[in-house]
Write a structure and sequence with these properties.
Layout lengths: L11 H13 L4 H12 L5 H16 L5 E5 L5 E7 L7 E8 L8 E7 L4 H22 L10 E4 L2 E6 L10 H24 L4 H18 L4
Helix pairs in contact: 1-2, 3-5, 4-5, 4-6, 5-6
Amino acid sequence: MDRNVYSLVLIDDVVDAVDKMAYEKNTSRSNLINQILAEYLSCPTPEMRIKDIFGCVEEMMAGIDYFQMQFQPSDTMISIRSALKYRYQPNIRYVLELYRVCEPTVGELRVSMRTQSQPLIDILTDFFEFWAGLENKYIGSLFSNGQVYFRIEPGRYIRQFLPPSNEAQRTNEAVANAISEYIRMFDASLKQYFAELDNLEETALELENEYRDFIKSGVMI
């Protein structure tokens, strides 16, 4: 949605109240006024869409014990933490950011681990490379350049999400469900990879079969 500058004449008490609420919500005065007017006039905004999707993601993750939702000091991001059963029990952190404009991508997922252990970072990076290979093999053709939009850094995986190809599946709930299922699948695969490091060749085959089943039953983003 385009944004333009307009002049409004408001009384000081209203401005003070708006500024107080904007501070509490960690947003700007103009953005809060825009949200208030949009809600009153039933005119959806990108912020409302993002809030709705995050609400659905939180609800879908609520019943899973090993996921912990953590809201960020930003209305476009949430963080999800998952414990890994490995030495020192490090936490996997999933930061989901949604874009205000849904084309060509709706947002991105950033996966990382807080650790200083180089061997652990190396194993994690190996998994990211394995996962990226699976994604490119099975769904790379859905992306404009023939490859999934991803980036791998030491101990860090960044993956952008496409809007669902089917228009009927682009509702907030459907997008939230697709993202939630992706995170669940990713997390389960990562934990299985770490649990079976002594037999990675067989594990890789199992994970590939599970990924293939996943894309047959889910909405690809």
